[in-house]
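thread: overnight batch results

M.L. [08:02]
morning all. the overnight job finished for the chain we discussed friday. pasting input first so we're all looking at the same thing
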Amino acid sequence: MKAYILKVEMIGLEPAVWRRLIIPAGATFQRLHAAIQGITNFQSEYLDWPLHLHEFRLPEENLLVTNEPQVYEEFKKQKKGAGGPTVRKPQSIKIDDYLEKYGQLSYTYDFGDNWQFEIRLKKW
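M.L. [08:03]
and the structure it wrote out:
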């Protein structure tokens, strides 16, 4: 089974804080988000905890993958070719093509605290 070995590093911290993550090929951005939540211990133990917004930015593709409903709804209302990035939901798109093509992803978690991560493909 094909899998990716990733280095997930929080940006702007000294000393550097990073984790190694192995995730199967064919995983969605939602599954990658869930895995990052697990390795950083950001996930809440309470089931009624509100969802924190997150996004993956792929500027090379002019693509934003986010769970923010308002951004997605605004994108759907836009006229084609209106300028801004294409917006997709994290459960609807797989990581494979983007990791293999660019070797890295930008991830932001919790827009209030604005935790920034760099995700680098180390091996596949």
